[in-house]
Amino acid sequence: MDKEVNVRSSLLRLLWHRIEEDDLPGLSAQLAYFFLLSLFPLLIVLFTLLPYFPIPHQDMLGMIRDFAPEEAMDLIEKNVKEIMSHRNGGLLSFGIIGTIWSASNGINAIVRAFNKAYNVKESRSFIVARGMAVLLTFGMIFVFLLAVILPVFGREIGLFLFSKLGYTSQFIKFWNALSWLVSAIILFLIFTGLYWIAPNVKIKCRSAFPGACFATVGWIISSMGLSFYVGNFSNYSLTYGGIGAIIVLMIWLYLSAFIIILGGEVNAFYSEKYRSNC
Fold first, then answer.
1. Domain hosting residue 72, numbered range
2. How far apart are the C-alpha atoms of 145 and 118, rounded to whole Å?
3. Where does the chain cross the membrane (predicted)?
4. Is residue 13 part of a domain?
């Protein structure tokens, strides 16, 4: 028992050393800035694709709404609606190319953070690295669309079947509980793809699982914790006025960035440990 405690203590010390050595707080602040720049372009792309799918507008942001603080969510929804109401042209307009490029800035910043975690330099050409960021952005868009489409159709099919049996209320309770599990699985798949493909190192897919598990659980807990704190113990809008929602959004993006980068550090730590034991 004492040996197991010592191993865990040693692991935490080594991980803390990596946090200080790689300046995770500073990297998280940079990544949060790029997340802010990428967030609305990414949502614009998603909403531009919306007419091609039978998805209600309110369901598009459902996954984010489950975790984001209320004030940050209100800011996101307000700005997305305002931007989309002034947009002209469809999916094939030239503007979508620039939007995708802007949305890939966040992925590009994640790549740099992961390379630092693995202590490697970016040897891929600018075109290859940026192209990968754009492809990962498209991958995330596809996963988000899938995450929205499946619950919408699943809920409708379930309601139809269970209403015939007279168990509509029971199904709704079951579905609400299941939606959390589905969201967690989708997050795990997104993080696994990022940790597997983004770093400039060759690793097996399963090598990305520890960091993906950590990031999934850590992101859900930190997001819900911040939502609970903002909703019950703090009123940023009352303290800071109109800028309060922006502050909450930036804090949420900062925590998200820190968790994502820390997941990369966890994978890098286990990768180094595996190589040293070989």
1. 23-277
2. 31
3. 31-53, 91-111, 132-154, 174-197, 209-230, 242-263
4. no
**Rounded CA gap, 243 and 18, in Å?**
34
Share of the chain above pLDDT 90, in %: 8
Four-residue CA torsion sign, 197, 202, 205, 206:
negative
Domain count, the chain: 1
pLDDT in tens, 51-101: 666 666 666 666 677 677 877 888 877 777 776 676 555 544 555 666 677
Lowest mean per-residue pLDDT among 74-78, 109-113, 153-157: 153-157
> What's the one-letter identity of residue 195?
Y
Q: Which residue has the tokens 């200080």?
A: 20
Residues in the chain: 278
Q: How far apart are CA 268 and CA 104, in angstroms?
A: 23
Q: List the Cα angle 263/200/102 in 5-degree steps.
A: 80
* Category of 119 on φ-ψ map: left (φ > 0), alpha (ψ -120 to 50) or beta: left
Q: Which of 39-48, 125-134, 150-159 has the lowest mean pLDDT?
A: 150-159
Number of helices and strands in the chain (H, E): 11, 0
pLDDT of residue 126: 82
Please report whether residue 260 resides in a domain. Answer: yes
- Domain membership of residue 192 (yes or no) is yes
Is residue 10 included in any domain, yes or no? no
> What region does 258 belong to: left with phi over 0, alpha with psi -120 to 50, or beta?
alpha
3-state secondary structure of 262: helix
DSSP sequence for 59-99? HHTHHHHHHS-HHHHHHHHHHHHHHHHT--S-TTSTHHHHH
pLDDT of residue 80: 73
Amino acid identity of residue 159, one-letter, is: L
Residues with Cβ within 8 Å of residue 143, at least 6 apart in sequence = 186, 189, 190
For the chain, the first-to-last Cα distance in angstroms comes to: 26
